[in-house]
Amino acid sequence: RLRLSFLRALFLLTYHKRVAITHNTTETRPESSVYTEMRGVAMLEDSVQDTTEYVRPSEGGDVISTILRREVMHDQTQGTCAEHYSVANANCTQDSDCAQGEIDFDGHGQRTGRCILYYNYTFKTCEIKSWCPIEEYAVVREPALEQAINFTVFIKNAIHFPKFKVLRGNIKPNKPKKLLRCHYHPETNPYCPVFSLGFIAAQAREKFSELCRTGGIIGVFINWKCDFDVDPSKCIPTYSFRRLDMRKDLPSSGYYYRFAKYYHKDGVEYRTLIKAYGIRLDVIVHGHAGRFSLIPTIINTVTAMTSVGICSIICDWIMLTFIDKNEVFSEKKFDDVSQKDGEYYTEL
């Protein structure tokens, strides 16, 4: 009985000690900074597309996007024109069908109260004050920038663990020129955070052609798991990629946004409205660091010994092994339940 108790206590003590060492001083909320830069040049028909054309925002940060396909509205100006027929209550047959001053928030402007022909068609819709012509009527859909599959993204990350006073980066400061011609590989190039868009899409298990059509948001996860009981230079991040927005078979899938370029002609303000579909990269940094510390280990070990009653077991073992009156102690400690000769027990 004593031996079994001792073995049980030894097992539990070993387990608690291992847990105590594993969960010593840790830090899970480090300070982090991210800088991103996209590189590459492509041809769209006869037009050269460089980073100024397709990268948003231009200054870099933990979020960066690239335009893969555009729908363009040229030469829009402030005026009056017919509302799109898909807008609720926009179709009409007479002026009384169009309430003057009414604004439909799914529409394109304020109604004037007139019912007019829908551009060159035979049916009519309500007239509105807006940027004309409206987007759905005169949009020009450009081909996808398929050469963007070879564009590269440089992601520089610095992480600081204040509790341990350790600052780490994902590039080597003494080899900056090598970054111009390398690509990331977890074994051969772990300090080269340069990724092609094709590689990112493949790692996220997405088709690049589908991303060109609808756009999408991909998370770039930088994972730091550091053991500062060894040399901090051994702490190297790993990278993973995952689609963050809804899938393509849902109505809210994809990623796009609108922006405009304004100009004046003959004293009149015009704009070119661009609806851009692309890939948005959200860089998300996770950090976890740990180091052995003596004081938490002592506290956890004493707690483990108390929880399994190891102190009383050690005292019993000393009394039964080394004290002269161990037989007397044994008689007081344990009950003899062995059956004597001639004694029988009857089941009731």
Automatic annotation (TrEMBL):
Pfam families: P2X_receptor. It is a multi-pass membrane protein. InterPro entries: P2X2_purnocptor, P2X_extracellular_dom_sf, P2X_purnocptor, P2X_receptor. GO terms for biological process: calcium ion transmembrane transport; response to ATP. Keywords: Cell membrane, Disulfide bond, Glycoprotein, Ion channel, Ion transport, Ligand-gated ion channel, Membrane, Signal, Transmembrane, Transmembrane helix, Transport. The keyword Translocase does not apply. One of its GO terms (cellular component) is receptor complex. It catalyses: Ca(2+)(in) = Ca(2+)(out). It is found in: Cell membrane. It comes from the Eukaryota. GO terms for molecular function: ATP binding; extracellularly ATP-gated monoatomic cation channel activity; purinergic nucleotide receptor activity. Its main location: membrane. PANTHER family: P2X PURINOCEPTOR (PTHR10125), P2X PURINOCEPTOR 2 (PTHR10125:SF4). Belongs to the P2X receptor family. This is Uncharacterized protein. It comes from Sinocyclocheilus rhinocerous.
